[in-house]
Structures
1.
Amino acid sequence: MTHGMRMDTHTSHLNGGRDWRDNASRYALLPLRLFLGITFIYAGLDKLTDSAFMKETGAGSVGDMMRAVRDSSAVPALVDLALKNPPGFGYAIALGEVAVGIGTLLGLLARLAALGGALISLSLWLTVSWASDPYYYGNDLAYLMAWIPLVLAGAPLLSLDAALRARRRTGGYR
């Protein structure tokens, strides 16, 4: 009689023969979607409700922040564009963050929402946090990298995109 290790694994037929690793892989982007969606909604609402932020000048204003980073940014022309109308730029960023966050949480046009998040993060990295030394102190680069998997994969599970895709495939809900 030979003793040895059993090499096969038990898989339940209830979940289509998938083991826990397959399920973990399928849901791997969900925590990232939740984090980025909630964070961007919060950031946008924080800007919209901060009376000092949406001003051209003054402590904590978007205008003063843009003037402070202009000479140290990677793309001063982008800062100059924002300085033409600081409150308008502040509203554009804040409303963009809210739209990106909602799209990401709901999984509605998820790749487009993620691309929007990546572009917002890229613009903030090239302007506001460019001078961070060492570079990893600036969080906008990390957010940019976090958006890339969602740009590539979208929201394949637990999303309106997935529900709409399933509805198109089956010809509607029954």
2.
Amino acid sequence: MTHSMRTDTHTLHPDGRGDWRDAGVRYALLPLRIFLGVTFIYAGLDKLTDSAFMKEAGSGSIGDMMRAVRDSSAIPALVDLSLKNPVGFGYAIAFGELAVGIGTLLGLLARLAALGGALISLSLWLTVSWASDPYYYGNDLAYLMAWIPLVLAGAPLLSVDAALRARRRQRRDDW
């Protein structure tokens, strides 16, 4: 008796759209895009509207937070760099999170936005949440891993990038 794999269980419809599994594959990254986009927009706005956060010192300030994690971070030199101007660093992170969130949500320069999100998450993991024990209590590592599929795939559907790509293709086909 021989065994073989069935290859006829997943067929495309005549119109080329495929079945619900094909749609699931096409839209698989959309929930991740929405979650990360909304979360990073929220994080950026939260920092910008928190009067205590954007200060060099004081309870809840970026300066005090960076001083508190300096000795437990993986790269203390990175924390030292941020401590040269903690308020400027706080604004850079907040505006970076906003740009990443908006780009991800809209699918505008989606791979670049995802790379920015991955770099922000990496820097926060190596500084702020590095000392989390066990490691999975620190959420920045999970965010870093969540950005990787979007760095690789971009925003192929329901995005500004996809609309621009379709427009370029249409222009090329019209020639």
